[in-house]
Design the sequence.
C-alpha cells in the first residue's frame, strides 16, 4: 500500500525489563524482578494491544549501578533477566506474532567492571588505556576540565553537581564519566573502540534483532581537546550539551552497517539535546540515524501554546531536512504523563498527541494503563538519578501479588487494584481500551500512520490538525482546557472514530469537545 519502512508508521512499546513481569510463580529468575521470560509470557497481550515493535531497555550483564545502563558484557544476558536462550526464544516468539524487537545499545560508556575498563585501569601502559579518556589533573590540581556528570551530589535527577571526572589514585590520572563514576566513557576517537562496538551490533543483528535504541548517542564524539566549553553551560551535565561534529562521522558508519543487513533494521538515537534544531542534524542527509528522539515535547506542560510551539519546531527543523519525527511522552527516566499532566482525562487526551501526530510513536509500558509514578520513600529508593517512580512494576491483575511471584523490587504505582491489566481489559471504558482503539485506528488509517500534517484554525485552548494520505483523511482535536469548546470543522459528515472518554464514538461529530477531551474524526 505504501513503500514506507515499518519504523516510520510504527508504534514502539518500551519495556523496562526489571519492572515488566517476572517469570511467575515457580518461574526462573529472581522473584520480584522482571525477566525476559516474563516478557515472553505477555506477548499475546501486546499483540492484543496492537503495538508494532518492542524496545527492551538493557538486559545485558551488569553490576546494576545504573540498573543495566552500566554494561559489563554487551553480548550476554545478565542472570537476573535470564539467558541468551531466553532472549532467542523471546525474539522468535515476538517475530512469530509479527512484533519487531529493538534492543538498547549502550555505546558511550561501559561499566567500570567491564573487562575493557578493568584492563584500562590496571596501568597507564595497558594496551587498553586508550580505550577510555584518561587525563592528568589540571595544572593546579583537580579535574582536567569543568565538565559535570549527569548524576551524583545527593540524588535527584538534576545532575551537574559533581565533576564528570574521577581520580584513580594508583596512577594519579582522572577518567571521564558523563554519567556515574561506575560508567566510564569510551574514547570513540580510538579505532579499536569503534570496531568493538560495531561487533556488538553485528552480534545482535546476526541473532535477528530489528534494530537498536542507541543510548546517549550524541555523546560518543568528544572535543579532542576536552576543552571546558562555554561558561553558561558550566553547571549543566555535559551529557545534555555534548554536540561534537565527530559524532556524525560515526553515525554514517553505523548507518552503513545497519543498512547492510537484510530487512528494515533501524537505529533510533537518544539525542538528549533539549532543542529540536540541534536534533535535526543527527539524521544527516538520510545517512545517519533513521530516527532520533526529540525530547522537548516530553518536558512540555499541558498547555496549548506550548504544544503549538513544539509542533512548529518539528515543522521548522525536521520537515525541511526530511527527518521523520518521533514522539515520546514517557520513558524510564522521567515522570509519567499521568503524573505530569495531573489527571486521567489529560493523560487520555495526551495519547492523541502521541499517536495522532506525524511520526513514530514510543509508548512506555504502563502509560497505556494510565499509571501514575509510584511514591518511593527514602528507604525504598534505589536509583542514583531519582527515577524510581516511573519504574514501578506493572500490576497485571487485581490479586494481592498483582501477577508477580514475589513483592517487586519497587513499590506499586497508586491504585493497582483497579489500575492493572486484567481489570482494565474487562472494562471497555478503561485507559487501556482507549489505547487499543487508538492503535487500531492508526493501523487502519494511512493518514494517521504516514499522512501529512496541517495545523487547523481552532478556538482558544484547542489544538486541531488534519492528517492526509492520498484519499485517506483524519482530523484530530485536543482540548487543553477544563471547559467545553466548540470546534467547528469545514465540510460535513465527520464521524467520531475515537474519543478520549469514549463519548459519541461511531456517531456524527457534535462540533463540541468536552473538558480535556480529544477525538479522532473520520469522514462519514
Ligand atoms: O539517558 C541519558 C540522559 O542524558 C538522561 O537520561 C538524563 O541524563 C537523566 O535521565 C536525567 O535524569 C540514558 C538512559 O536513558 C538512562 O537511563 C541512563 O541512566 C543514561 O543514559 C546512562 O546510560
Sequence:
Amino acid at each position: 500500500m505504501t513503500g514506507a519502512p515499518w519504523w516510520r508508521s510504527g508504534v514502539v512499546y518500551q519495556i523496562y525489563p526489571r519492572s515488566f513481569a517476572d517469570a511467575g510463580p515457580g518461574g526462573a529468575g529472581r522473584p520480584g524482578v522482571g525477566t525476559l521470560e516474563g516478557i515472553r509470557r505477555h506477548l499475546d497481550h501486546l499483540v492484543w494491544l496492537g503495538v508494532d515493535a518492542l524496545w527492551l531497555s538493557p538486559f545485558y550483564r551488569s553490576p546494576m549501578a545504573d540498573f543495566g545502563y552500566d554494561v559489563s558484557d554487551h553480548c550476554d544476558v545478565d542472570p537476573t533477566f535470564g539467558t541468551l536462550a531466553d532472549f532467542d526464544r523471546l525474539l522468535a516468539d515476538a517475530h512469530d506474532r509479527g512484533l519487531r524487537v529493538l534492543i538498547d545499545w549502550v555505546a558511550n560508556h561501559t561499566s567500570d567492571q567491564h573487562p575493557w575498563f578493568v584492563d584500562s585501569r590496571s596501568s597507564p601502559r595497558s594496551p587498553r588505556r586508550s580505550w577510555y579518556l584518561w587525563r592528568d589533573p589540571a595544572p593546579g590540581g583537580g579535574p582536567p576540565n569543568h565538565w559535570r556528570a549527569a548524576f551524583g551530589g545527593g540524588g535527584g535527577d538534576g545532575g551537574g553537581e559533581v565533576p564528570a571526572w574521577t581520580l584513580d589514585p594508583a596512577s594519579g590520572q582522572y577518567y571521564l564519566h558523563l554519567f556515574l563514576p561506575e560508567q566510564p566513557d569510551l574514547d570513540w576517537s580510538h579505532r579499536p573502540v569503534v570496531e568493538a562496538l560495531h561487533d556488538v551490533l553485528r552480534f545482535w543483528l546476526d541473532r535477528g534483532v530489528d534494530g537498536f535504541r542507541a543510548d546517549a548517542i550524541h555523546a560518543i564524539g568528544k572535543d579532542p581537546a576536552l576543552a571546558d566549553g562555554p561558561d553558561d553551560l558550566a553547571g549543566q551535565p555535559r551529557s545534555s550539551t555534548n554536540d561534537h561534529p565527530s559524532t556524525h562521522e560515526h553515525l554514517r558508519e553505523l548507518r552503513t552497517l545497519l543498512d547492510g543487513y537484510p530487512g528494515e533494521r533501524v537505529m533510533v538515537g537518544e539525542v538528549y539535546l533539549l532543542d529540536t534544531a540541534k536534533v535535526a542534524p543527527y539524521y544527516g542527509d538520510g545517512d545517519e540515524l533513521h530516527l532520533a528522539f526529540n525530547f522537548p515535547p516530553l518536558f512540555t506542560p499541558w498547555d496549548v501554546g506550548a504544544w503549538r510551539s513544539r509542533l512548529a519546531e518539528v515543522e521548522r527543523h525536521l520537515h525541511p531536512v526530511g527527518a521523520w519525527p518521533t514522539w515520546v511522552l514517557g520513558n524510564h527516566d522521567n515522570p509519567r504523563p499521568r503524573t505530569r499532566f495531573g489527571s486521567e482525562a489529560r493523560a487520555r487526551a495526551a495519547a492523541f498527541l502521541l499517536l495522532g501526530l506525524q511520526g513514530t510513536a514510543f509508548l512506555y509500558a504502563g502509560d497505556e494503563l494510565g499509571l501514575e509514578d509510584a511514591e518511593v520513600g527514602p528507604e525504598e529508593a534505589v536509583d542514583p538519578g531519582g527515577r524510581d517512580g516511573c519504574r514501578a512494576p506493572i500490576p497485571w491483575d487485581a490479586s494481592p501479588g498483582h501477577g508477580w511471584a514475589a513483592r517487586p523490587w519497587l513499590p506499586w504505582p497508586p491504585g493497582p487494584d483497579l489500575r492493572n491489566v486484567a481489570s482494565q481489559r474487562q472494562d471497555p471504558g478503561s485507559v487501556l481500551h482507549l489505547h487499543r482503539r487508538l492503535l487500531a485506528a492508526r493501523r487502519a488509517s494511512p493518514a494517521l500512520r504516514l499522512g501529512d500534517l496541517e495545523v487547523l484554525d481552532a478556538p482558544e485552548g484547542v489544538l486541531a490538525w488534519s492528517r492526509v494520505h492520498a484519499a485517506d483523511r483524519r482530523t484530530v482535536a485536543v482540548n487543553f482546557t477544563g471547559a467545553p469548546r466548540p470546534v467547528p470543522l469545514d465540510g460535513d459528515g465527520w464521524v467520531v472514530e475515537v474519543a478520549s472518554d469514549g463519548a459519541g464514538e461511531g456517531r456524527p461529530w457534535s462540533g463540541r469537545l468536552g473538558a480535556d477531551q480529544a477525538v479522532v474524526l473520520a469522514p462519514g
